[in-house]
Amino acid sequence: MYRTGVANLPLHYGKAPSWLTLRMCKLAKELANIMIQEHGTTKFIKRLSDAYWFQAFGCVLAYDWHSSGVTTVVTGILKNALSPEEHGIAVCGGKGKTSRKTPSDIAAAGEKFGFSEDTIKKLTYTSKMTAKVDNTAIQAGYKLYHHAFILTKDEKWSVIQQGMSSQDHTARRYHWLSDNTTNFVVEPHKAIVGNVKHPKVLNMTAKKSEGARKASIDLAKEPTSKIMRLFESTRSLNQRTLQEWFPETNCEPYQRSVEALNMPRNISWKIMKRVYEFQPKNYEELLSVKGVGPATVRGLALVAELIYGEKASWKDPVKFSFAYGGKDGVPFPVDRKAMDESIVLLQMSVKAAKIGDKEKTRSLQRLRQFVPANYGD
């Protein structure tokens, strides 16, 4: 699988009006029908995993393209519009408390698709690990509050999840797509899109963090008493503040005046003991242990560097961004080829949809508004 994209969006509160969601649901179902009939379910979820295409799709459905709500509303609309029986696709999970129902949603969809128990368990594990990686292994300050797991009858899947930052009031969206790899922890993304790039982000999925990952595993397999001594020894090695190392994390509560470069205050030695008893063979297994969170990952990475000299990556993994220009703030995507394909597919789908001419015209106009003013220059 690949994490196929990340998008940062300003937080917008409130709900979409019912008249709008009803119209969006009808249009989404029409567009999905056309794309699935023409290209199949695998191609459809691949499109959903593309951060730019997803944003353009939300725009065509009449939702504000530059809002965090596009993630929750569009996935919610798709959950209502698509059905396993008719489309061969199921949308599991959602926003807030609904995200906790993802495992039961996957089980229900798997039963309809005729999946084995082992397949359902594997898919449930995949759902949990994608959330664990984006919430814990990459610490940019975004705490996940939305998780949608989109599953096809062919056992293909896509994840669209979103985290919130209380510090800069933005949301970051993460896209994952099943593919020909099973590695969750080594740069699983194909493209990352965002408009906020942070100066210091602990990224344990970076290739540069390989040494830190291995050292973290070695540390985690040591007796808890030894780990406690190692963490305490970091105090004498360096007295810099933790703010210098961890300006932004997913941990709550976050304090900017942490006193010393040692174990984060909210570490659970009970969890560390659980990890030791489990004896993880690799970093994925370490992350999979129940209770292992940002503080545990951060603390192990810190000791890996101070004691063993194995440095983790502190570079924000955002690679592509929406640059803004003009009074309307229309995005200028970096990847023009992907943009071309997205626009053409959506235009063709809208024109073929069984909706009124006025609705088609409005949808195409919204798509044109989403496209940069200098597109094609």
Q: Multimeric state of these chains?
A: single chain
What structural class results from the helix and strand content?
alpha+beta
Tell me how many strands there are. Answer: 9
Task: List the secondary-structure elements in sequence, H or E.
Answer: EHHHHHEHHEEEEEHHHHHHEEHH
Number of domains: 2
Helix content estimate: 40-55%
The major β-sheet equals: 5 strands, antiparallel
Question: What shape does the CA trace take?
Answer: elongated
- CA-to-CA gap between the ends? 35 Å
Q: DSSP strand (E) fraction?
A: 5-15%
Radius of gyration over all CA atoms, rounded: 22 Å
What does this structure look like?
With 377 residues, the chain is of the alpha+beta class. The protein has 2 domains: 2-198 and 318-370, no CATH class; 207-308, no CATH class. Helices cover 48% and strands 14% of the residues. It is built from 15 helices and 9 strands. A 5-stranded antiparallel β-sheet has the order 1-6-5-4-2, sandwiched between helices. The chain has a two-stranded antiparallel ribbon with strand order 3-7. The protein has a two-stranded antiparallel sheet with strand order 8-9. Helix 1 (18-39) crosses helix 2 (41-48), helix 6 (102-113) packs antiparallel against helix 7 and helix 8 packs across helix 13 (294-308). The longest helix has 22 residues, at 18-39. The chain is elongated. It starts with a strand and ends in a 7-residue tail after the last helix. The relative contact order is 0.15. Mean pLDDT is 78; it is low at 239-245, 247-263, 322-334 and 373-377.
